[in-house]
Amino acid sequence: MAFTKERKSEIVAQYAEWVNKSQAVFIMEYSKMNMKAVDAARAKIRDAGGELHIVKNTLFKIVLEKEGVSQPKGLLEGSSLVGFAFNDAPSMAKVIAEITKSSEVFKVKGGYLGKQVLSQPQVKSLADLPPLAVMRARVLGVLLAPAGQLVRTLAEPARSLAGVFKAYSEKDSSPAAG
Length: 178
Prior knowledge:
Elements: H1 5-21, E1 24-30, H2 35-47, E2 50-55, H3 57-67, E3 80-85, H4 89-101, E4 106-113, E5 116-118, H5 120-128, H6 132-173
């Protein structure tokens, strides 16, 4: 089905909006696709805070050129299903890795993290990262560890002094051996 020039410009504007809103873009290839598989994949990706769309390669290339993003050969060839990560790129990559592992219909081609091109192995590495909440908790733990250690260090002399007083008081109250 041929698109009018006006419709193509609307599609390009929509693609540009998705690209600008997203932290990462993941490109998958699909074959022998049925709507049941696509709807299941879209539901999983929506739960991860993203969207999954079938794109027209030539129009998506136009958007990437306007954004100044390099395009490796073969990334936008054949059938393309694009996942847009609006919130958390690692969790979205994890969902995409899960979808491609459990299905013969989808295959990861690569993607973009910001304007940096991601290869297939890099998408897998991104999927292996812990979710954003876990990363924040780890950073917070690292930041709070010195403060906790400082509090323990400052409290130790008082604790030692209290132990000496307690031992001294117990010594005085015990019956004299004799």
